[in-house]
Amino acid sequence: MSSRRMRLFAFDFQGPAHLSAGLWRHPQDQGARYKDLTYWTDYARLIEEARFDGIFFADNAGYHDIFEGSPDAALADVAQIPANDPFLVVSAMASVTEHIGFGLTGSTAYEHPYALARRFATLDHLTGGRVGWNLVTSYAESAARNLGTGRQAPHDERYDMAAEHLEVCLKLWEGSWQDDAVVRDLERGVYVDPSRVHAIDHHGRYFDVPGLAMFEPSPQRTPVIFQAGGSAKGLRLAAASAEGVFVNALSEGALKRQVDTLRSLAAEAGRDPRSVKVLQLLNVVCAPTDELAREKNDSYRRLVSYTGAMARYSGWSGLDMSQFDPDVPLRHVRTNAGQTMVDLFSRMDPDKEWTPRDIAEYVGIGGTGPTIVGSPTTVADELTRWMDETGVDGFNLAHAVKYQDVADFIELVVPELQRRGTMWSEYEGSTLREKLYGPGVTRLRDDHPGCGYRHHHPHHHRADLAPTP
Ligand SMILES: Cc1cc2nc3c(=O)[nH]c(=O)nc-3n(C[C@H](O)[C@H](O)[C@H](O)COP(=O)(O)O)c2cc1C
After folding, report:
1. With a 6 A CB cut-off, is 248 part of the ligand 1 pocket?
2. Is residue 345 part of a domain?
3. Would residue 128 count as lying in a domain?
4. Does residue 108's CB lie within 6 angstroms of at least one atom of ligand 1?
5. Residue 46 is part of a domain; what is its CATH number?
């Protein structure tokens, strides 16, 4: 098992700070450079030299304003606000690299599938097939207020909408243009053969898209589909249609259960369970020795901002944490909404009573993922153990100090992982899908529902589109 190659993505955000709270005050933090194109092109080169699989941009269609019913705490600690549009930096990062993939978060609640599909196709062309879509249903009421209908649709309905959104996109990517549609026949004066471009004729509950895709098929056609939802509906959509799933298990036991659940749900949905690659959110604090790593971690912990952590956690959970005493264990708080999120923590460590302050200290570095602290050997041992014991395929690497933590990981831990063969020293294949599935697999695998929308024969008509999977 330990010979499996670890998939590794840098988890990042188009703003001064992502998951970690208060760490922007660290003297080495480079978050304030997020508006410089050279920051992102340097970063792209750095992670490609280290042979990462790619970078993954989280994004939020709204901002955090649950804590104290206001965005003030989020603004003060740059808790995922400000946030630039992650799509726009990718061409530049791709132009200085050849291999790294780009995971981009796109909302099925606030982006129209017709426009979103074109944007992904464009980037797939410009990057040579290196983009992936983190399909999210969005959770912030602020997004609904500012760019939606005022109120969020109910949780489960957002997933129904997401399934149809994805269906429209898949029809556009896979079913509209045949591979041989572009003929560029100079003699006949025909660039695109009209008989090989098909209207998708989609008439659904949420979307009406009768016409053609406006773009040529790109190298991957469909960007690699990622998802991160953990509810029953979320898991089902992921199992049916995701190629990569991001999870934030708090312990190895919880991670193993999630991996097993996803794989068996994928099998139930008629897919090869190995088609679902699972990536765990993780934070690493490393130094040349265990002792130095512990000191570094202590210095990071001293910078964690309580209100910055709670601004985020309140936004993610939908629960205003300002109503609780920071030092009273949450187990004694009687609220249904609260109990669900408290359970996340009490399940990890049933003997410990979690206070809001404990939660802030935990999520203040790297969010709801665990943090591994140690020397290169310690960290490499831990990462390998997580892979062996849980069946996870790799990690989404968060950070406390922007840029510097990833640079330290690359300097210290990557050589150790490469020496062990857990990380590769040379890339194989160039597209993002090949990084998940191996060289040669650039298009959707046959077990993916998107394949049902393909035109297998020339001159098919739109009535031949497969029914909804
Ligand atoms: C590791 C991880 C990363 C996530 N990244 C994002 C993100 O960038 N943007 C977003 O809107 N939601 C993100 N989410 C939230 C999920 O997409 C989803 O909205 C949330 O988990 C609620 O859905 P659920 O009830 O199905 O779990 C992330 C979740 C996890 C676990």
Report:
1. yes
2. no
3. yes
4. no
5. 3.20.20.30
135 sits in which H/E element:
strand 131-136
Q: Give the residue whose CA is nearest to atom 7 of ligand 1.
A: 58
Domain-embedded: residue 191: yes
pLDDT in tens, 364-394: 999 999 999 999 999 999 999 999 999 999 9
pLDDT, tens only, 8-50? 999 999 999 999 999 999 999 999 999 999 999 999 999 999 9
Structure-token pair, residue 92: 């530049």
Distance (Å) from CA 432 to ligand 1 centroid: 21
Q: Contact 260/391 with Cβ under 8 angstroms?
A: yes
pTM attached to this predicted model: 0.94
| Domain housing 234 | 7-282+376-464
Q: How many structural domains comprise the chain?
A: 1
Q: Is 60 in the pocket of ligand 1 (CB under 6 A)?
A: yes
**Residue labelled with tokens 């490499």:** 380
- Ligand 1 neighbourhood includes 422 CB (under 6 angstroms): no
Distance 228 CA to ligand 1 centre (A): 5
235 lines ligand 1 (CB under 6 A): no
Q: Buried (b) or exposed (e) across 175-210, using 16+ Cβ within 10 A?
A: bbbbeebbeeeeeeeeeebeebbbbbebeeebbebe
In short, whether 136's Cβ falls inside 6 Å of ligand 1 is yes
Token pair 């040379």 in the structure block, residue: 426
Q: Is residue 78 part of a domain?
A: yes
Buried b (16+ CB within 10 A) or exposed e, 387-404: beebbbbbbbbbbbbbbe
Comparing CA positions, the residue from 449, 401, 1 lying closest to residue 269 is 449
Closest CA to 107 of 138, 147, 81: 138
User: Please, are residues 406 and 370 in contact by the beta-carbon 8 Å criterion?
Assistant: no
Q: How many CB atoms lie within 10 A of CB 351?
A: 5
